[in-house]
Amino acid sequence: MTEAYVTLATTDGYGVGALVLGHSLLSHGTTRQLCILVTPGVSEQVRSALSQVYHNVVLVDVMDSGDSAHLALLERPELGITFTKLHCWTLTQYTKCVFLDADTLALQNTDELFTQPELSAACDVGWPDCFNSGMFVFVPSQETYEQLLDFAKTKGSFDGGDQGLLNSFFPNWHRLSFVYNMVATACYTYLPAFKEFGRNVKLVHFLGSTKPWHGESAAQPGSAYGSFVGAWWTIYRELVRPSMP
Ligand code: UDP
Ligand code: MN
């Protein structure tokens, strides 16, 4: 029975995000494996750094895979990264997984997530009847993978990405606490709640167009948001940058 955290990177930027994420999970003493799906868009240099942190670096190339994902992609080219993400269901060497976006950061150990069923996730702040697909518990299965591809091909995604697709496919998802996927901006958009519950946050998500690896300027001590970006940069400076040739 092997369980794993799984993430995804198609570029060096997201690859660096995944390096920081991996270190954050290890620093909080996870007992689970770390696995990452990478595409040929990630450089050799970043892939080699990833293989120092992740137990399993899986190269996924939907473009020349020749399987049903490639065929689905020909019909729905807009779902390129989504189809790459769906590959996580093919990781059947694991009995259960937690998917994490590469723009997330563990602040505490989250291994208790592996006791949750498929599909467990936390609410999306934009539409809380939907789950946010930056963190979800799933069970790898070739059958589910084929069903997901078929669903994507025939029904598409209402938001053009994986979140719309997965919400339509798993309408009876199980709701987890927001502390497992707190959008970083919540610490100022709902300050009183952050003051009350913020100390419980276990995983922070830098959702949106500005990612921590775009620059250190947002890392301002004195604001909670700035301290999350600062925590990301501390790991980057101390553990990631020195490992890059
Ligand atoms: N991703 C990627 N390359 C991209 C876009 C996304 O590898 O060009 C992966 C990465 O793991 C990322 C996830 O897909 O964290 C979801 O995208 P993102 O986090 O940018 O979306 P947001 O959470 O801001 O909605
Ligand atoms: Mn994200």
Automatic annotation (TrEMBL):
Entry keyword Nucleotide-binding: no
Cellular component GO terms, alphabetical: cytoplasm
Example GO biological process: glycogen biosynthetic process
Catalytic activity field: [1,4-alpha-D-glucosyl](n)-L-tyrosyl-[glycogenin] + UDP-alpha-D-glucose = [1,4-alpha-D-glucosyl](n+1)-L-tyrosyl-[glycogenin] + UDP + H(+); L-tyrosyl-[glycogenin] + UDP-alpha-D-glucose = alpha-D-glucosyl-L-tyrosyl-[glycogenin] + UDP + H(+)
Molecular functions (GO terms): glycogenin glucosyltransferase activity; metal ion binding
Sequence intervals crossing the membrane: none
Cofactor (UniProt): Mn(2+)
Keywords: Cytoplasm, Glycogen biosynthesis, Glycoprotein, Manganese, Metal-binding, Transferase
EC number(s) given by UniProt: 2.4.1.186
Domain of life: Eukaryota
The protein's enzyme class: transferase
Signal peptide boundaries: none
Annotated localization: Cytoplasm
Task performed by this protein: Self-glucosylating initiator of glycogen synthesis. It catalyzes the formation of a short alpha (1,4)-glucosyl chain covalently attached via a glucose 1-O-tyrosyl linkage to internal tyrosine residues and these chains act as primers for the elongation reaction catalyzed by glycogen synthase.
Family in the record: Belongs to the glycosyltransferase 8 family. Glycogenin subfamily.
Protein name: glycogenin glucosyltransferase
Biological source species: Hyalella azteca (Amphipod)
Gene this protein is translated from: LOC108678095
Residues shown, of full length: 1 to 245 of 340
